[in-house]
Amino acid sequence: MKAEALFVHALAALVLAFGTTGALAQAYPVKPIRLVVGFTPGGGVDINARLLAPKITEYLGQTVIVENRPGAGTNIANEYVAKAPSDGYTLLVNTAALAINLSLYKKVAYEARDFAPVSVLSMSPNILVVHTSVPVKTVKEFIALAKSRPGQLNYSSSGAGTTQHLSGELFNLRTGVKMVHIPYKGTAPSLTALISGEVGLSFANIPAISAHVKAGRLRPLANTGTKRADQLPEVPTMKEAGVPGVEVTVWYGVFAPVATPRDVVVKLADTITKAARSPDMRQKLEDLGAEPVGNTPDEFSKLFREEVVRWAEVVKVSGAQAN
Question: Which terminus of the chain has fewer CB atoms gathered within 10 Å of its CB, N or C?
Fold first, then answer.
């Protein structure tokens, strides 16, 4: 009888645990959600987070706050979310910078397994843009200039370990030029440095540079994507410009702490997918040069694993450093 009583008690506890998890997901969210961004306001990640926030509020009925925690190539934000409660109320919005940092930095206070990939909101290529004072109009001309000035041309990025940084390292590797990387705490300060002439070039995403290109403050030379962007149809891909092997597509994804209940992760993913495919969001993203995505946690997890492996190889071959 005692054994039977213990069995019934254990079974009841198990049912209660499953019921509690299901009830948590059903009730979620019951308080404001934070989207943590490891960059300063104004860059592609921040723009995507601020587009997503009101859509989550619209669909789930809770306030969503975008919280910028820039610094250390997004490591500050990454560590903060990795160690946050696994309840779905503290989420990370990041790019492949999260995957890159795992191999670029000798030591970080988190691992890939500390995160539960939720969904990718959108994707966008990086664009090689130069200050208008740089006397080139094509990638071929730029390579010739860079080779004539080894170590003299500086390129800015939104931080060490970002896709902007690694795009430059890949360009160095594929062309044999020697540009110097200057990291900033976000795309906005990186572009400010470029526009002011503090650096000569950058690799930046379309949402961040489109207005500057239209205003004539920056000159685009090439697109790191696999196809030309509708917003900049005159700008060739790197491959078309004669530099294959610099294909870098930037994804903007949402992560939760790893122990977040699966039902909550799925609910968030469904919400992000619904947002990405809504007519108003699709139009906003496409106007900025980003492609709406919206995928499942399993699909994003597969992509993230592949990116960790891919960028580890790029870091190794290129000799990139977290300077």
Answer: N
Q: Say what the pLDDT of residue 305 is.
A: 97
Residue identified by tokens 């723009």 is 47
State the burial class of residue 203 (Cβ atoms within 10 Å of its Cβ: 0-12, 13-18, 19+). Answer: buried
Q: Give me the phi and psi of 243, to 5 degrees please.
A: -130, 80
Report d(CA 108, CA 126) in Å as an integer.
Answer: 26
Which of the residues in the chain have pLDDT under 70? 1-25, 323
For 11-42, the pLDDT digits (tens) are 455 545 445 445 556 799 999 999 999 999 98
Q: Do 247 and 226 meet the contact criterion of CB atoms below 8 Å apart?
A: yes
Tell me what pLDDT residue 255 has: 98
Other CB atoms within 10 Å distance of the CB of residue 212: 17
Q: CB 258: neighbour CB atoms within 10 A?
A: 16
Instruction: Report whether 192 contacts 218 (CB < 8 A).
Output: no
SS3 sequence, the chain?
A: CHHHHHHHHHHHHHHHHHHHHHHHHHHCCCCCEEEEECCCCCCHHHHHHHHHHHHHHHHHCCCEEEEECCCHHHHHHHHHHHCCCCCCCEEEEECCHHHHHHHHCCCCCCCHHHEEEEEEEEEEEEEEEEECCCCCCCHHHHHHHHHHCCCCCEEEECCCCCHHHHHHHHHHHHHCCCCEEEECCCHHHHHHHHHCCCCCEEEEEHHHHHHHHHCCCEEEEEECCCCCCCCCCCCCECCCCCCCCCCCEEEEEEEEECCCCHHHHHHHHHHHHHHHCCHHHHHHHHHCCCEECCCCHHHHHHHHHHHHHHHHHHHHHHCCCCC
> What is residue 24's predicted lDDT score, i.e. its pLDDT?
55
pLDDT tens-digit map of 211-253: 899 999 999 999 999 999 988 999 999 999 999 999 999 999 9
pTM, entire model: 0.83
